[in-house]
Design brief:
This is Por secretion system C-terminal sorting domain-containing protein. The protein is mainly beta. It is built from 6 helices and 64 strands.
Length: about 850
C-alpha cells in the first residue's frame, strides 16, 4: 500500500467531497451509540432500520452514506448487504468507501454465498471507493438486478477494485433483468478473478440495457472478462485495458454469448454496441459473438454448409447480410474505433456451435469478422442520444416526455373503457398514488403531475380518441372570469434549456371574446400558477415570477375568424408586463396548428437543430414555430427580465388556460358562455442535457513552501462544478488522488482555490486537477511539477543495528499522545506501520523489519504534523 492511501484518510475527514446535504456513517459493526450520525458512532452496515431511515431522508434531500475503514467480511460470513427499493429519482444516494481501506472480503472456510452486495429495484445510486478481495466461494460479489414490477437504473460504480478472488463462480459484479438499465462502471480495476471458465469479471445478462464500462482495468480472469449475454442492448466499453498473462485461461476479453439449452432457444442477440479506445493484450480473441445450442424462434443461428461458406469466405456485404438475417446482428450499429490489439489472433470473432442436443445443419465453427463493423470516431445515432454529446446544441428529435392524454397508467385506465369521449365534472390532479381524470406522468417518462381545473360548471374538459396515441383534450372556456386550465408541472430531470411541442385548434362562438394563454416555467412551491386555479396576470411588474414565457391567442367578437397572436413582453424590470400583438395572421379558426417552442433560460446562448439547420437562441429567450414557420422570425429575444423566473432554473412546467371576456356588446347575448373551445394534443417536452465546459480555469500554479507543496488555481466561470480532485504522480503517467476541494457550483465571478500537499514525495512531483461536475463528468487540467528534497529531522533519529532485523528510533516529544510510524521507500511504497504511544521527553522504540538495501523514509504522523527522517539500509 502506498503512502498516499493513508494520507487520503486524513484528507477525506477534513475536506469531504460534497455530493449531498446529509451524511451518515456505517462500519463493519456498530460503533459508539451506533446512530450513524458521526464516524465515531457509525451504525452497523447490516442494520435494516438504518437503511429504512436513509430511504426516508432521500424523500427530501440527497444522502451520502460513508463506510468507514474496516473489514466488512460479515457481508459474506453472516448475510449480504441487501438494498431493496432504495434511492430516489431526484435525490441521489452515494455509498462511499474509505478508498482502499473499506474492504469487503470473502474468507475461505465458510459456506458459499450467493451475493455479497445486492442492489435490487433501486435507482440513482453512486457506489465508489470500495475494495473487494478473498477466495471464498461466491456467485456474485456486487450485483444489480430488478424484478416483481420494479426498476433498477442510474447506477454508477466508480473507483472500486476486485483483486484476488478465486472463489467467484459467475461474476465479480454484473447486472441482470430487462428493467435494469443505465449502469456505469468507471475507473474500476479487476485482477486475478475466478478458478473456472464460468467466472467472469463483469457479467451482464438477460435484457438489461445501457451498460457502460469506462476507463477500467482488467487483468487475468479464468472466464470472459466482460460479458453481455442474451438481448443485452446498448453496451459500451471505452478507454479500458485488458491483459492476460501466461498461466491464465485464453478467454475472450469481451463476449456477447447466447446459451440456448432448450428447443426452441430463448436467448437472442441485441445489436447496439460501442467498443472504442481500448487496449487488448495477449489473447486469441479480443471480442467474441457466440451462439451455442438451438435456434430461437424466427432466427437461424445453426448454419448450413452454404451459409457457413458465406460467413467464412463471402464478400463483406454478404457476411453483413447473413449476420443480420440469421442472427439479427446489425454490424452498422456496432462501432469499433481506435482500439489497440497486442498479440491478438482475431480482433472480433463470430462462432456458432451445436450444444445441449442440438443438431448441426452442416457448419459449425468460428470466423474473424473484424472488418464488418463501423470504424469511425463519429458517434452512432444511438450513442448521441445516450451520451447527450451535442455540445451546445439540443436535439429536438429526441423524446423525453411524450404525454399521451388518453393512455392511462396506474388506476386511470379504469376510466377509459371505450373510445367514446369522456368528460370530467370537476377539478382533478393526477399523481402516481392518486390517479385522476388525466394520466399521471410516470417516472420512466420524466415524472410529475397533471391537472385540470375550473371554477364553474360553464367550463369543461373532454378527452377524445382515448384508444390511441392521437388522444386529445378539448377545453371549454370558463365564463366566470377564472380560467379553465390544463397543466403539467413539477416534471423531474428537466433543465433550463427545454422544448415544447403540441397541436392546437380553435372553435369559438361568434359572440364570445376569449383568450387562450400558454406559458412555461418552474413549479417551486405549493401555491403556484401551474398547480393552482388562478390565471396569468399581464399587468404587474412582479407577478407570476415562476413564468419564463407566455403567449396567447385572442379571438374578438368583431372578427372571430381572425385570431390575434400575442406575446407577453417587458423591456425593463420595473415596468408592468403587457402583451404585444403580432400583426401577421398565423392562426385562424377551425385549423390545426403544430406549435414548437424552444426556450433557453440558461446564462449562455444555446442552439437547437431543426430540419438540419442550427438556430441560436440568446440567454433567457425563446423561439416559437407554427406549422413549420417561425413566428416573429425577425426578433430573437422575447424573454422576461431577471426579476421573473431566475436565470438557470429548470423549465419543468407547462400550462394552457382559457377565459371569456366579461363585457358584452349585445344585451341579447349571455356573457361568459362556454361555447369557445380549444383542442390540444400530441404533447411532447424535451429537456436538454447540454454538455458545456463546466469550468473555465484561468490559472493553475504549484510551488514548494517549507517542505510542503502549495497549489493555487482560479476560475472565472463555473457551471455545475461539484469539486476538484487533486492528483499527484511520481512519473507524470500514473496519477493518484491525494485530496479534493469543493467547487462553487455555478458562478460568473472569479473564484480562487488552494490546496496544500503536506506529504510530497522526494524528487519530482507531478500535479494536475480533475474538475468534476454534478453528473460525475470530469475534465483534466495541465500538469505542473515541483522538485522536493527531504530534510532529515533533528528530533527523529534512526539506527539500524548490524545483523539484527530491527530498526531503532529515538524521538524527543513535546507532548504525550498516540502517533503512527511508517517506513516507506522514496516512491511512497509502505513497508511497515506501527502505532506508537509517545511520552513527553525522549522516546525509544523499534520495529521489526527485513528491508532490502536502499533509501527509505521514516514518517512519524502526529496529531497536527508529520516528522520525516531519511535513512539508508
Amino acid at each position: 500500500m502506498m503512502i498516499r492511501n493513508l494520507l487520503l484518510i486524513f484528507v477525506l475527514f477534513i475536506n469531504v467531497r460534497v455530493f449531498s446535504q446529509v451524511t451518515r456513517f456505517v462500519g463493519p459493526e456498530s460503533v459508539g451509540s451506533g446512530d450513524g450520525m458521526t464516524a465515531a458512532n457509525a451504525a452497523d452496515f447490516l442494520n435494516t432500520n438504518f437503511w429504512t431511515d436513509i430511504q426516508l431522508l432521500l424523500q427530501t434531500q440527497p444522502v451520502t452514506v460513508k463506510f468507514i475503514a474496516g473489514i466488512y467480511s460479515r457481508a459474506y460470513t453472516e448475510k449480504r448487504l441487501y438494498l431493496n427499493q432504495k434511492g430516489h429519482a431526484k435525490n441521489q444516494l452515494v455509498l462511499e468507501g474509505d478508498l482502499n481501506n473499506t474492504i469487503f472480503t470473502a474468507p475461505t472456510g465458510y459456506q458459499e454465498s450467493a451475493i455479497m452486495i445486492w442492489i435490487y429495484n433501486s435507482r440513482n445510486i453512486i457506489i465508489k471507493n470500495f475494495s473487494f478481495t478473498g477466495n471464498g466461494k461466491v456467485n456474485y460479489v456486487l450485483r444489480m438486478t430488478s424484478g416483481q414490477g420494479g426498476v433498477t437504473k442510474d447506477i454508477l460504480v466508480e473507483n472500486c477494485h476486485w483483486y484476488d478472488m478465486k472463489g467467484v463462480e459467475y461474476g465479480a459484479t454484473g447486472v441482470g433483468q430487462p428493467t435494469t438499465s443505465y449502469v456505469t462502471y468507471k475507473n474500476c480495476s479487476f485482477k486475478r478473478i475466478g478458478s473456472g471458465s464460468g467466472a467472469h469479471m463483469i457479467y451482464n445478462a438477460y435484457g438489461s440495457h445501457h451498460i457502460s464500462i469506462i476507463d477500467s482495468h482488467f487483468e487475468d480472469c479464468t472466464g470472459d472478462y466482460v460479458r453481455f449475454r442474451d438481448n443485452l442492448d446498448y453496451g459500451t466499453v471505452s478507454g479500458s485495458t485488458f491483459i492476460r498473462t501466461s498461466g491464465y485461461s485464453n478467454r475472450p476479453f469481451i463476449s456477447v454469448p447466447l446459451f440456448n439449452d432448450i428447443d426452441p432457444g430463448d436467448e437472442v442477440f441485441a445489436t447496439n454496441y460501442s467498443f472504442t479506445n481500448n487496449v487488448f493484450t495477449n489473447a486469441t480473441e479480443a471480442i467474441k459473438f457466440y451462439s451455442s445450442g438451438y435456434d430461437p424462434i424466427g432466427r437461424n443461428h445453426l448454419l448450413t454448409a452454404s451459409e457457413g461458406g458465406i460467413l467464412s469466405g463471402g464478400t463483406a456485404q454478404q457476411k453483413k447480410n447473413l449476420l443480420l438475417n440469421n442472427f439479427n446482428i446489425n454490424t452498422d450499429l456496432i462501432r469499433l474505433d481506435d482500439n489497440t490489439f497486442n498479440i491478438i489472433t482475431r480482433e472480433v470473432t463470430m462462432e456458432s456451435v451445436t450444444n445441449y442436443g442440438s443438431q448441426s445443419r452442416g457448419w459449425t465453427g468460428a470466423v474473424d469478422i473484424s472488418e464488418l463493423f463501423t470504424n469511425t470516431a463519429n458517434l452512432l445515432p444511438w450513442e448521441e442520444n445516450y451520451y447527450n454529446l451535442r455540445a451546445g446544441v439540443w436535439n429536438n428529435e429526441s423524446r423525453t416526455l411524450y404525454y399521451n392524454l388518453g393512455a392511462g397508467t396506474g388506476g386511470e385506465d379504469k376510466i377509459f373503457t371505450g373510445i367514446q369521449p369522456v368528460k370530467v365534472g370537476g377539478s382533478s390532479i393526477s399523481t402516481e398514488s392518486i390517479p385522476g381524470f388525466l394520466p399521471y406522468i410516470p417516472e420512466t417518462d420524466g415524472g410529475g403531475f397533471a391537472r385540470v381545473a375550473y371554477p364553474s360548471s360553464n367550463a369543461a374538459f373532454t378527452l377524445q380518441d382515448m384508444s390511441s396515441d392521437e388522444s386529445t383534450l378539448k377545453i371549454s372556456s370558463s365564463g366566470s372570469g377564472y380560467p379553465a386550465k390544463f397543466s403539467l408541472y413539477n416534471i423531474l430531470k428537466t433543465s433550463p434549456v427545454s422544448s415544447l411541442f403540441f397541436t392546437i385548434s380553435f372553435k369559438d362562438s361568434t359572440y364570445t371574446q376569449v383568450l387562450w394563454t400558454c406559458s412555461m416555467g418552474n413549479h417551486t412551491g405549493i401555491d403556484n400558477l401551474f398547480s393552482d386555479g388562478s390565471f396569468l396576470s399581464a399587468s404587474s411588474a412582479t407577478s407570476n415570477p415562476e413564468v419564463f414565457n407566455a403567449f396567447r391567442w385572442r379571438i374578438a367578437r368583431t372578427n372571430p375568424n381572425v385570431i390575434d397572436f400575442q406575446y407577453r413582453n417587458k423591456t425593463l424590470e420595473s415596468e408592468n408586463a403587457s402583451y404585444t400583438t403580432v400583426n401577421i395572421p398565423y392562426f385562424y379558426r377551425g385549423g390545426e396548428f403544430a406549435i414548437e417552442v424552444y426556450a433557453n433560460n440558461d446564462e449562455d446562448p444555446k442552439s437547437y437543430t431543426r430540419g438540419g439547420i442550427i438556430y441560436e437562441i440568446p440567454s433567457r429567450a425563446y423561439h416559437i414555430w407554427s406549422n413549420g414557420e417561425r413566428i416573429l422570425k425577425e426578433i430573437d429575444n422575447y424573454a422576461f427580465p431577471a426579476n421573473q423566473l431566475a436565470v438557470g432554473l429548470p423549465i419543468n412546467s407547462f400550462m394552457i388556460h382559457g377565459t371569456n371576456s366579461s363585457s358584452t356588446p349585445n344585451p341579447d347575448v349571455i356573457v361568459g358562455d362556454n361555447s369557445a373551445e380549444l383542442t390540444i394534443g400530441k404533447i411532447r417536452m424535451d429537456f436538454a442535457s447540454i454538455v458545456t465546459l463546466p469550468v473555465t480555469l484561468t490559472s493553475f500554479d504549484v510551488k514548494q513552501q517549507q517542505g510542503n507543496v502549495l497549489l493555487n488555481w482560479a476560475t472565472n466561470s463555473e457551471v455545475d462544478n461539484a469539486y476538484f480532485e487533486i492528483l499527484r504522480s511520481t512519473d507524470g503517467k500514473g496519477f493518484s488522488e491525494i485530496g479534493n476541494v469543493k467547487g462553487t457550483g455555478n458562478s460568473r465571478s472569479v473564484n480562487s482555490y488552494t490546496f496544500t500537499d503536506k506529504y510530497p514525495l522526494e524528487g519530482l512531483n507531478y500535479y494536475r486537477l480533475r474538475q468534476v461536475d454534478y453528473d460525475g463528468v470530469g475534465k483534466y487540467s495541465e500538469v505542473k511539477t515541483v522538485n522536493i528534497g527531504f530534510i532529515e529531522s533533528e528530533t527523529l533519529k534512526v539506527l539500524i543495528p548490524a545483523n539484527i532485523k530491527e530498526i531503532h528510533f529515538s524521538y524527543t516529544s513535546q507532548d504525550t499522545g498516540e502517533s503512527v510510524l511508517q517506513v516507506l521507500d522514496v516512491q511512497g511504497r509502505k513497508y511497515t506501520e506501527e502505532k506508537i504511544q509517545l511520552k513527553k521527553g525522549e522516546n525509544y522504540f523499534f520495529i521489526e523489519s527485513s528491508l532490502p538495501s536502499g533509501v527509505y523514509i521514516a514518517l512519524l504522523r502526529l496529531k497536527d504534523q508529520a516528522i520525516i527522517a531519511k535513512f539508508i539500509k
